[in-house]
Amino acid sequence: MRTLRLQLLSGGGVRGLLLHGMGGVGKTTLATLLANHLQSAGAFPGGVYIVSVQDTTQYAADASTLLAAQTSLLGAVTKQNEPRPPSLAVGASRLQVALRQIKDGPVLLVIDNVPEGLADG
Known about the structure:
Elements: H1 2-9, H2 27-40, E1 47-52, H3 63-78, H4 88-100, E2 107-112
Parallel strand pairs: 1-2
Helix pairs in contact: 3-4
């Protein structure tokens, strides 16, 4: 946890951190504990937002599943009932705008259960 915390808090600008491994080893638990700890410590005054791309019944995500996760994240960030974007590109653009409007300070996004690849369909 200490290493992950330092990686997230060191330097400035946008940083990414990828936790990967076999299912059931505790990645979600670790990410959630770390996010809660950092939120409690005030490290991300702009907010901490957690979204899961797929649930336990899915093993891949199609565009519809990704759009649903994107819509959920948009709603959390804007604190509004956001309409579903017509495409992933439009959703990414809307999310970028919403994040830029947060003036309270740094934001932590935890995007959980991301599949290895986009399924056809």
